[in-house]
Amino acid sequence: MGSSFERENSDQGAEPAKLGKPPGQVKPRSGGGASVVVRARESRAHGNGRQEKRTEAKTLERAMYVAHRSDQDWLQNEQGKLYKRGQEDPSYVFHKLWGLVTDPRNLRIAVARVASNRGRRTPGVDGVTVRTVLRDGVDTFVANVRAEIRSGAYRPSPVRRVYIPKAGQPGKHRALGIPTVKDRVVQAALKNILEPIFEADFYPVSYGFRPGKSAHGALEHLRMVLNPRGRAERSAPYQWAVEGDIKACFDHIDHHALMERVRRRVIDPKVNRVIVAFLKSGILSEGQFLRSEAGTPQGGILSPLLANIALSCIEERYAGHVQRRLPGRPNDPATLTLRAHDRRAYDWKRGRIVCYPLRYADDFIILVGTRGPDREDRAREAAENEKIALAKYLKEQLGVELSETKTVVTPVTTVMKFLGHHVKVRLHPFRKIWNSTAVIPKERTQRLRERIKKIFRRSTIGTSLASRLRQLNSLLRGWGYFYRHAWGASRVFSRLDHYVWWTIARWLRKKHRRSAWRLLSRKYGWRKLGCRGLRWQDGNVRPFELSRLRVERYRLAWETPPAFVKLSGEPGAQRKVHAGFGRGRPETDPT
């Protein structure tokens, strides 16, 4: 019998420039933080430097529709109840969620989410955009959608398939499925209710497409787990790793296996029927209709959640070393983490093999380690066997296959490629101790230089420098903020700033072939007070300086849990224990 919340609802001083050279390396600036607006709310980012603040009013001007505060409070309250119920009882099954899914307040929040998404201008197979829908009124649209869903007449439309180029892989494209606006709203409404239920089940080693989780968090978690406990190489807890990648994961997940995992928690027939309808809605590609017999097409709002539900079977395989849940015992996150740590310590002490997974979407790493005089050979053999066993396990559970070229077994003292970084355990070049680091790959830096060179190619000399700088700044800003937590990022940023300076200088010489260098420096250059280095500008537009970014190690304490976790009063919401450390050692600092 359902609980009370499972119910049916009725309703950003320059002086004149002189001839000179590019500025020298600028030391990273410490302190300060930037205000970042997320979904019309203002939150504090950690160590992003003094970038231009975007106010809440400016965001509201851009937003096409913002849900009422009372609707948001209602949804957070319901999500908190769902999360708390799922956290307290891992075996609890939710029977009545249809009223929450079709509640007008939930649907209005779903409309606001779709309207604030960057893809709001992109239509589905019906050619309708968010602006078209909102022109007739949100209340009317919500009422029509709700009536259609509750009457049982709702049928999802096929997704429109488009192809986007894969970054860094010329000639390769990724297929995206774009649902209609109506389908996006229904998917968002489903996700609002299903997400807190399954968040209570997801493991702390899963980071992809989860609220309050990030790629930087996954990298820092991996680095901390790999970090040797002493000054010698032999103190590393893990010796080998299985770098895994699932081949076309989103396209090959078996629908039956996925729904079996969904029904472990949700058996509301109406909710499950809509989920199956989305999975079976089909694809419209180049005018041809294709049946979707497997997979969760990328591009839908609900697809990442469904993919995480399916791929959580990877963590379940190693649950004993990650998060052990026992019936009739306390199952709060802190207790579960300590229990898993004790299990790993117990197995290590007896020379057994310990496997520790870390996953971001369909990219994952399985760390394999043991102790004893022959630990290297034993760990390598175990890693090779685990790769074969895992491939068979995923084929049986989800019907997916591991990529032969991307799934490799490597020692942790060599480079492991994970989320655009190179992670390895190595001897520190200055401190002479063994530690784990995540560095910027050289190919990523070279790829960025090629993109910068393309922005300032000879065919663009007919455009203004300001237009080139605007395009350059968006590229440098995103690249810099992503890699500013990597080890040695300051040196890489300084070299890139030097490259950008000379690239602009060569471009200006091509643009003004008959102008002397002194005239160019007067027209486009400026000097910062107290500095001799010449900098470029065009009007009020200046190139973004990577060396001005604050470079620091990412801290897991910066990852805040979603609102429904805080509202649920979960014991581990304010303080958690890291999975790779000893008893009582905190993963995050409550301050």
Present the secondary structure layout.
Blueprint: E1 14-16, E2 35-38, E3 41-44, H1 56-62, H2 69-88, H3 98-101, H4 104-116, H5 130-135, H6 138-150, E4 159-165, E5 173-178, H7 181-199, H8 215-226, E6 240-245, H9 249-252, H10 255-262, H11 269-279, E7 283-285, E8 288-290, H12 303-317, H13 319-322, H14 333-349, E9 354-360, E10 363-369, H15 375-397, E11 408-411, E12 416-418, E13 421-427, E14 434-439, H16 442-455, H17 465-483, H18 489-511, H19 517-524, E15 525-528, E16 534-536, H20 563-567
Parallel strand pairs: 4-7
Antiparallel strand pairs: 1-15, 2-3, 4-5, 6-10, 6-11, 7-8, 9-10, 12-13, 13-14, 15-16
Helix pairs in contact: 2-4, 2-7, 4-6, 4-7, 10-12, 16-18
Number of H/I helices:
20
**Which shape, going by the Cα principal axes?**
globular
Q: Give the CA-CA distance, first to last residue.
A: 41 Å
Largest sheet: 4 strands, mixed
Detail the poorly predicted runs: 7-21, 25-63, 569-591
Beta-sheet strand percentage?
Answer: 5-15%
Strand numbers in spatial order across the main sheet: 5-4-7-8
Number of strands: 16
State the helicity in percent bands: 40-55%
Rg for CA atoms: 26 Å
The helix-and-strand class reads alpha+beta
What is the residue-averaged pLDDT? 83
